[in-house]
Amino acid sequence: MTPAVSQVLADLAGRVARNAAPNIPAADRAGELGLSALLLGLAAEMWDGAAEILAQENADLRALLAAGAKVWGEDTRRRWLDALSQGRDESLRLSALQSANGELKVALIALHAELERRDDPEARALESQIWRALVAASDRRRLSGSPV
Amino acid sequence: MEEAELVQRLGAYAAAQMPGARDVAVTEIARITGGASRQTYRFTLVWTEGGEARRRGLILRRDPADSLIDTERRVEFEAYRAFHGGEVPVPEMLWLEEGDEALGSPFFVAAEIAGFQAGTGPLWTAPYLESLPELGRRKWTILGQIARADPVALGLAAVLPATRAEDVWRRELDHWEGVLDADETEPLPVIRAAIRWLRANPPPPAQKVAVVHGDYRTGNFLYDTQGGIHGVLDWEMCHLGDPLEDLGWSFNPVWYFGQGKPGGLLPRDEAIAAWEAASGLVAAPDALKWWELFACVKGQAIWVSSARTWLDGANRDPILVYPAWALIDAQDRAALKVMGHL
Lengths: 148, 342
Hints:
Chain A is mainly α. Helices cover 77% and strands 0% of the residues of chain A. Chain A has helices at 5-18, 26-47, 50-71, 75-85, 94-117, 121-141.
């Protein structure tokens, strides 16, 4: 969730306060408050499950990177994946989970591209696992009003 | 700029454009919400000419401090002007101002096309429901007419950067991948995989180098209850390119609006048939698939830019947060769907 919910809520708080002033044109006020309400609704839906979604996704990514470390021939890259796969989410702050998630996804993108360059059954099988994980992550993040 | 100052400066600007007019004034100004790339206002211009009182509904489109889509307003203005009076319905353009002197930022003024809907909110309710198939046929027929148009005859070849039929895909992909590289706020494994696929499986050269609207979707045209379309809007991403780009964008699953069909209007095969009949071109399935996946990359680049603009702080309009929160995962899902993984 970028921008972070906490940042957006802080901004919306100021915006709602400003729109309480009597000199704001009615159309501007209606537009700003309508959008603010829409975002508050999205925040309410995302907020409760956000930490669990990121923690689950990070665990899945680490499992994929561990599998990747076993099949990647090049030493430096293999050690990189291996080190990341052994990490843990020590903090359950969304900012910490998000930061770890970003780092893991950078490695996943590199692993995915490497597997696409190969044509052996091991690579194909792990690539299929990556696609399944990406679909599962997208399912977990899906909002109730999502158009897709 | 406060509304009272905007009214005064806009009135003064309009008076300077109308030497035969007296007592020129701006009244009934109201902001139209929803646009993230331009600030849009509806207003009435009143004046006296030849002893007669006159009035006209107009639209002001002004650049905000930091817009969602970085474009030259001249491109948008000239695209509208090129199509005005022809079979593709667009509002009449009046004045373009590219400097900051008049209103603090560049803007253009256009005639208002009043009495029709643009937003998607009421579309899937009465009294619009019965005419949705007709609206869909009209939508893709007009898109075919845009594809059929001759950019040289329209005067747009002189305004829009030239390109070659075999190069258009690479130019567009390079551009939007560059936007992602610059603005990405978190890594995007699905979209990066899509970009690798697009580069490994390039489409055939464009059948013709055509005018591409760039954001042709339900919500960017004015419609009535009978399935009629009275104005195609939001030409700020107009460029020369492969006409399949617009068709692919119109098929982006994020524009299905939860209705299970393109644009929420028409089954895919009927939309393609209407487009082919009007354009005289062919939507070859493999080439169209390439442009549909490209549309997912382009869409994601726009949503990501929206988040970046908000985070950088120059523009904290809440409209910039909405696509980042509501559409980034949906766009990933759309890409997964086009690639056959969902």
